[in-house]
Amino acid sequence: MRLNENPEVLLMGHPLLFQEQPQVVVGDIASDDFQHNLEILKQKQVSTQGVGLAAPQLGWSARVLSVGISEINRSRYPQAPDIPFQFWINPQISDFSQTTCWTWEACLSVPGMRAWIERPESITVAGYNELGERQEKALTGFPARVMQHELDHLNGKLFPMRVEDKSLIIPNLSIEHQESWAEGWPTENAHKTPRGQISQHR
Length: 202
Known about the structure:
The strands form 2 sheets. This protein has a 5-stranded antiparallel sheet. Strands 4-5-8 form a 3-stranded antiparallel sheet. It is an alpha+beta fold. The chain has one domain: Peptide deformylase (Peptide Deformylase, Alpha-Beta Complex). Helix content is about 15%, strand content about 25%.
């Protein structure tokens, strides 16, 4: 398929967001339509201030995602570290740490919500880049978190499905007033951890 120039981000409830996405044929990566779709994915991620975006969020059924954080798109996670912009095609986690961490997650497909979520602290991910070349990277901290969140999209999962306790879900606007929260709410570490940073404890 070929994406239009400004596709809408699909919202939670759309059936495509709950489906496992099909593997990309590596030989298709160089095609005009595929390269066009990659560029649209990148443009949409930047224009919506996303730190990552997965193909199914734009209605493209494929195991493709983009990630990257810089000054042009960090407003939703102002304390996040820089992440070089990159495409991942057919990504898969080949290893993950037994140690976990917590951070605030949100999603363009789930507007208005944010949640305090636990995931492995470090991962190794392998896949292909936009040139069809094999790539593998070890990630830790917030970059590992972004990758795991986007990989969930390729497996039909959204972040609310990862929340262990409904008390850890907040209105997205609340995060902008974190300094005025009740002491220790919703947990001691969630209270003091800014967007884009991680905590070793709940």
